[in-house]
Amino acid sequence: MDQTSKAGSAARNTIADSPRVLLFLAVAVALLGFGVYIPFDSSQAHHPLQERLLMGGFSIACSVPVFILFLANMKGYVVDMENDTFEYPGGGIAADSFIDYFRPGFWLQWFKRYTITLSDIRHVETFDKIKLNWSDTSKKYNKKKRYHLDIDGDFGAVSFCFMSKGKRDQLYSALVVANRMGSPVNVN
What angle do CA 94, 27, 165 make, to 5 degrees? Predict the structure, then answer.
């Protein structure tokens, strides 16, 4: 899912967190399949048809927002140096004030794509988060690792969470190269 079109140098990078995209697709298809299957399942005949149709309809309705999440994330993160833009799926935009938490647009950001100007990015940072969960069945801690990338600038702050360290680092490198961050400074 990575593409680089070259015109002298890498002008456009598309980076997709494939495990995340595939997870959204798998959940959407599973919910849709369950919604279509359950009303006609003969083993559930002891439940009234109305109840089975309601359960199936609810499952299909739940598949719609998950499919929209899949569509928003499918295109990935697009760093376009030629047009000085960075396009990304929503979900990590930080609230500017306490009031933002009460605005529907803040909560619906997961279903949209956003575009900002590359030259507005002032800072890019990466970090890893490790979450330990105790499992009663295996009697040990399960480790879940997520890879984060934070950017901030004139547009505010945005945080991205990746399931793949390589994709996170690839986006980090593309943003750093696009903004010439970390290049030497000559003072003469």
Answer: 55
Q: Phi then psi for 71, rounded to 5 degrees? A: -65, -40
The answer to whether residues 168 and 95 belong to one domain is yes
Determine the length of the chain. Answer: 188
Inter-residue contact 118 to 86 (CB < 8 Å) = yes
* pLDDT tens digits along 22-64: 999 999 999 999 999 988 887 877 888 888 899 999 999 999 9
30 in any annotated domain: yes
With contact defined as beta carbons under 8 Å apart, do 84 and 153 qualify? Answer: no
Whether 92 maps to a domain, the answer reads: yes
CA angle 62, 64, 68 (to 5 degrees): 130
Is residue 161 very low, low, confident or very high in pLDDT (cuts 50, 70, 90)?
Answer: very high
Domain that holds residue 186: 83-188
Question: Which residues, listed in sequence order, are joined to residue 8 by a DSSP beta bridge?
Answer: none
- The whole-angstrom separation of Cα 28 and Cα 60 is 9
Is 168 within the bounds of a domain? yes
